[in-house]
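Notebook entry, structure prediction.
Reason for the run: the old model in the group folder had no record of what sequence produced it. Starting over properly, with the input documented here first.
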Amino acid sequence: MLEHDLVLVGGGHAHVLAIQALRMQAIDSVRVTLVSEQALTPYSGMLPGFVAGHYSKLDTLIDLPALCRECGVRWVCAEVIGLDPQAQRIHLKSGADLAYDLVSIDIGSKPDNRFPGAEEFATGVKPISQFHDRWDILLGQLERSSRDCNIGVVGAGVGGTELALALAYRLRSAPNCRIHLLFPHQSVMPGLPGRAQRIATAALQAMQVELHPGFRLLECQATGLLSTTGDFIALDRSFLCTSAAAAGWPQHSGLACDDAGFISVNEYLQSSSHNNVFAAGDIAHLQHSPRPKAGVYAVRQAPYLVDNWRRYFSGKSLRKADLQNDFLRLISLGERRAIAIRNGLVLKGDWIWRWKDAIDRKFMRQFADNGPMITEAGNSALMHCTGCGSKLGPELLESNLRALQQPLPAEFAHGLERSEDAVSWSPGESLTLLQSIDGLRSFIDDHYRFGRIATEHSLNDVFAMGAAPVHALLWANLAFAHPRLQQRDHLRLICGVRDSLHAAGAVLSGGHSSEGPEDHIAVVANALSQGESMWRKQGAQAGDCLVVNKALGTGVILAASMQGRHCGYALQQAVDQMNRSNRSFFEQLRQRETHAVTDISGFGLLGHLQEMLPNGTLQVSLFAHQIPLLPEVLSLARAGVEPSLLPALRPLLEQCCFAADLDAAWQTILLDPQTSGPLLAAVAPDVARSLVAADENVKIIGTIQAATAEGPAILVYTEEGKE
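New structure, fully documented this time:
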């Protein structure tokens, strides 16, 4: 049974290789969790090739959720903002603390941004994940612009030199762009052999990079950079490849650090002040034998790190990390040429670039997407979905509820035979109690976020009835584990439930708990409605517009994740959206005349939309390309990814007609079961436009008209005006 928590903070090179090692052999009785702010972590060795255009972004990224899933490691997407070594708790920006028995930190470094204006007017190359996004934006702007543009790179170490050459090569066909390399020394790549410096200088000159030796940065400004001697270089964009700096929170947390804020570790990669804290990669300062901030050392630290984690939990003596002082350097020259440096020997050529390319690609292949999981029989596994995709089908439910034949007292507004989002019970003439229950099997490892998502999912039912929640009850079933771990998980889960309820103006009033094979929770949401303010599903009018406030696709993305596909970015975006409450959209709707509302959940857009259409008197026109979709959803659907509930929903297509230019993937998307999905409202056109103006997330996706004699209930067009 799992008894201890090992928490890895950061998805650096040492940690991803350590996680790979855990695939082969787990640590006895230890649960491992990776906490990372990003779902995709970049491989630094391929950054120059990415900028130069030799690699796509996906070539350079490691999918952390997929890696963790394949290796039996939990993944929590969160930003760490502090550590309490005494209480053994990690403070997360997103919510409840994460407890640990042993913590390992591999969060890398960042450029030294102490210069005035650096945060506002310059882009740091590290963290690389942020640089990726900013580079995409800059490249798009340069491709659309014809005016002159000057781009500066500050720092001519190996990283700065490689970046300047990569930029010059990528932008070689843009004569209006000029690259500047600014550095305080008299030569590039100081400390390396003179032959390497001369080769790099010649390459920079051949690529027409303007060199500014002796330039010591004083201040970053909107229009350029100012040196300590008063020289000003006019620049449109500036990239910082300055000396490495550390995040502030390790030192503020009381860990022993060097003068620059890097965590001091001994020869075992163990904190010099706290024996249950380890650190690796750039954030670690090896007291006994300091090393440069280079990714190669992080890679070599990984096996020692894993071995010492095992030794720590088994009570054995730790093993010294025996790291070489010298290593092979392979330095890109922008185009497909490179320099190799080892023991003073310097070689150059295109064959060295091919060698470097082969090494980098081999490194990344171990994290590559191998497609859907395969069963022992050799067939693709039929993975049953979690989230709202795990519902029973609508035909099954309707048949059984009809067979139940249970009469309800008159205080109930409707019986089980009629579909509404919540049960409404009126104890008096002017007051109605609304209650709804929703439960989810867990689909993420973060109990805090799971608690929030399940709560938001349940609250949607009362929001869709036009009522604000008052309180909720919780049933929580936690997976079998040691009581210490269950207590930690339960606390994070109920904190997530509490925080979502608090944001909605409600409280957690009680509940029940149990344990079983997997995490599974249900939330009972309770609300009050005054007078005639309650909304109904049916009430739409001809001429209405249909509006939604969230993108579709959670079911497809969760199914892809369950099938072992690499879709980390899409999964992160889906989880972020599922955490977002519909409260603000609900409040916007309450301020306007609203004809009909429901939420889109397990039966997909088509299923819940059909519930809004009364007795064949109305018909809907949907405009597919105006429906907001989460990232990668369309490509995943076209690749054949389907939620396991989809076969039970396909009969709903009998009431639909699709435009000829819409492929079958759109059927999957419009039937896709949503977890914590959007509200769907039918409102007058002017109201729809005002909702769009008030919230950029709100989209008009269709219109309602009087039904034709024998036409389908729902017509799906490519876009408005195109049948």
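Summary: The two ends are 59 Å apart (CA to CA).
The old model has been moved to the deprecated folder.
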